[in-house]
Here is the input.
Amino acid sequence: KATVSVLNCREPPRHLTMLPTSLRRRAFAAAQRRAFSEGGDATMRVPPCQMDTLLDIGSRSVFNEDHDMFRDAVRGWMRSELQPNHKKYEAQGHIDRDVWKKLGDQGFLGVAIPAEMGGVGATFKEEAIVLEEQSYAHCHAPAIMVHSTICMPYFAHYGTEEQRAKYIPQMTSGDMVAAIAMTEPDAGSDLQGIRCKAVKDGDDYIINGSKVFITNGILADVVIVVAITDPEAKSKAHGISLFVVEDGAAGFKKGRNLNKLGLKGHDTAELFFDDVRVHKSAMLGAENKGFYQLMTELPQERLALGVQSMAACEWMFEETRNYIIQRKAFGKTLANLQTIQHAMAELKTQLAVTRAFIDQCIDLHSVGKLDNSTASMAKYWATDLENKVAAQCLQLHGGWGYMMETPIARSYADARVQTIYGGANEIMKELIARPIIKPPQ
Here is the structure.
């Protein structure tokens, strides 16, 4: 579980140097193993790939014992309260409204938002634990990431004192559900292609346009709307602003709950704005600075997608491991077939490597050093891997994997959108490539 100073040595301790080379190497390796088993300077933990299962609590150097206690509480609630009702939420196309309030009561919303603003006052690491444990419970709904990890930071970072006081405490308690309306019928990953406009009229703005694929759209009480405020700007990036629109505003209508391939428990809506009048105090951040605010916040969104995808991969691996140990074919269990063993070995290796990178990104983001390019790598790689793992795990389930009552089939369907939203992975590659081709300074 931990390491001692011997692990920080580039060479074996002096008392081992008197031994022959082969014995010295074996003795040094044994000292390393003892260091992990006996404890010491608790600066390093074993990775999940060295635990009994990839979901075991107590691994990963990015976390500590306090995090473990929080994870244990989140895990217990997700599995006892959310998991038993999740199939019902998928069938009805949305969660029950009171689930948001229950999450707030547990302190699982607004986790990384400062307490003085009305949030819980923890860090992104605790936020990541909530997202991971939701995936480990095999529950994609509700869209906690959209509400807490994506929407709430806009209020914390760009909101006025009045906006923070009004919205953040209610979002943290679950009394208000948040959504962000970026995507339009003709503008997805290209945010500069939006057409929704907000025209100034005295002290008000009049918003016209439509949005689509808006997660939390049906149950949302407050929506962050991305709109053009200066159509004459030298580029659209210089003429975009963000507005806060509340449910019930005149001219604001919610469309149908969209029927998706996966993530059936998410309420995903079309939103329509027909002469929606909002006061200038509803602007979130500075006028015509919305695009830059979006670009500043997107790295956390993309890392969060990577965090959830990585956790989904680990859950699928353990679900498939349990299946192959029990399922029999050719007179033995699937786990006894070498081809199955090799497939699982490949999967575990891929997960171990990606887990190390995602945890590195969590560490970087926790100290404000995660850049846009690296966050894009996390999103691209982990979501792409989730689709590959889902396909391989479904294959290992055979015909039963194709049946929707089998959890792995739902995971396969849920995984598909991960490479699309939050910026398509093709866009992620563009963002990753920019600093590569930029001449060194």
Observations:
- The mean pLDDT is 92.
- The first strand starts at residue 178 and ends at 181.
- The CA atoms of residues 197 and 214 lie 18 Å apart.
- The beta strands are 178-181, 197-201, 204-215, 222-228, 240-246, 252-257, 268-279, 328-329, 332-333.
